[in-house]
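User: Can you fold this complex?
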Amino acid sequence: MDVVAAAAHETVTGVVGMVPADTLIDASPVDYLILAVYFAFVLGIGLLARRSVSDSIDFFLSGRSLPAWVTGLAFISANLGAVEIMGMSANGAQFGIATVHYFWVGAIPAMLFLGIVMMPFYYGSKVRSVPEFMLRRFDHRAHLVNSISFAVAQLLIAGVNLYLLGSIVHALLGWPLWVALIVAAAIVLSYITLGGLSAAIYNEVLQFFVIVASLLPLVIIGLNRVGGWGGLEAKITEAAAKAPASASVPPAEQQLNAWPGQALTGFDSGFWSVVGIVFGLGFVLSFGYWTTNFVEVQRAMASDSISAARKTPVIGAFPKMFVPFLTIVPGMIAAVLVPEIVALKNGGSPPGGASGQGVAYNDSLLYLMRDVLPNGLLGLALTGLLAAFMAGMAANISAFNTVFSYDLWERYIRKDRSDDYYLRIGRLATVGATVIAIFTAAIASSFTNIMNYLQTLFGFFNAPLFATFILGMFWKRMTPAAGWSGLVSGTLSAVVVAFLSQNSFGSASLGVIPLSGQGAAFVAASTAFVVDIAVSVAVTYRTESKPVEELVGLVYSETPIETRTDPHEAGYPWYRRTVPLAGVALVMVIILNILF
Amino acid sequence: MAEKHTAGAFDIRNIIGLLLTIYGVILTLMGIFADAEPQKTGGINANLYAGIALLVVGLGFIAWSRLRPVVVPEEVPEVGDDPTRPAPKKRPRAGH
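Assistant: Here's the predicted assembly.
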């Protein structure tokens, strides 16, 4: 394509030992300076924290009595990674505004539910991880099943983060993807080894501001280029009308209206599309994701009172509501402004892309940055992306590390060794997980829209977990045998649906069920949820329950109300109480749904 | 130690403020001296405006932490190594 030729850049010089090919992004020394400043900050604070230079660092890291805006932002930032930025912009480019369902039907209600219903319970029962809950509520079988599935999920999701990180390395330096992946893995490993995780809360809040500071100009300049929101709508309408039928571009009204969201689900019927979004995405996937995601739940549990813990996700819901304008809108702009993405959406397969194997929707954001950001802002944007993917992958690796060393190795393989022994195992697990992630990144790279892959994975792992969790919490009869068998059958049923769909597993899917993309993922997740509940109920009636005394703090009806509520909260003004705040958030989200 | 012990330089707002101010300076300088690349931005000097905005926000954070300092309690429990976050070992606090 001539456009690609026009965009061919000078090569980045000074790279040791390798002659780079044409690079997708042409970074200048100033861009690298901005990147370097960020990592100097993050690693510097990590170092100061470990040296115990000042007790005020300890004060902030301990998370006790922190201002609510800090914990709220950290809560959002822990999630503002690969899924959010690349996945949502890819989705925005491919399907348009319907992607907002991930936020306004998915995340926000789930976060409010977490704050109001689940958090008091987590805080009161002092459960520190999902496997721990499984062990105490059910038995070691449910614990083992859940630990293994959690560990596998972390490795696969680490692969997604690594793939995106590698694609940026490729875009910057032009190296082949497999080299870029190994380099990116080495970067993450050194980030962890140098103490990149030591000053967690500082990193997360900094990351949030850098990402906002880079995406906001991208949106404003992008909108300026296409002639404002009206211009964007007109261009999307025009592009949808001109696209050849073979490209199966969703009609403009589906791309520009949130409901009924057929563009997103791929369903023909508007009614079933709404059902798929509300039940599959909203209820099963999002509630499952947010309420069982302890990487984020732990942010809130660090606060000093139940009231503060409950408010953390509720406060986080406010900035979260507006994140789609920073992630989905750039994708939509890219789909009409960036020649490569326009060609892709018209059914073409332009060469290039961040993977080097052809342009994909995942590349929308990178191409848009190339086309609209001057050097300087470009560096800020790259810094935000690199920081988010690196932190995301490091979080996956450390979550894997914990479950592998303490839940699997210590409990089932080598008991009663010294702390140093398990630390060594943990270090080996870190290196092992990074190496495995290189291979799972190769799987991720075969999906043109990373969101399809991620939602399929969440359907396997989160949907059955949520079903078992919620049933086990509210139904005291549910037996230990039902715990593990529900999880296993739920996951297996989702895998079967994915195999039978058209493309959830790429070419390995059989295409028996006429569903594709994220609609298939919603159906797989819903199936997993229903099968899990059905199997759990059936097994419960044939096996023996745990004695009620063992369920105190684990089942809602057996947990005394005093451990679930904060006696002081009633005395606060309304804007400091959980439920009124959540009400405001809910009303705002309903207004947003009506506007779009 | 003073009566009221404030979080000082390591107040998270100062860290945010410092980083954003540095970025603001870099981008403002880029906006003034470097090529504004109007063909990319559609005619806006994006670096300049973004730089000024970052300066305002960054200095705002620093001013906020000056005006309303966070008071650190007299006894801050030392934060130990978090086993869920692999990192080099933390040194115990000296002089306490």
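Chain A has a mean pLDDT of 77. Chain A has 24 helices and no strands.
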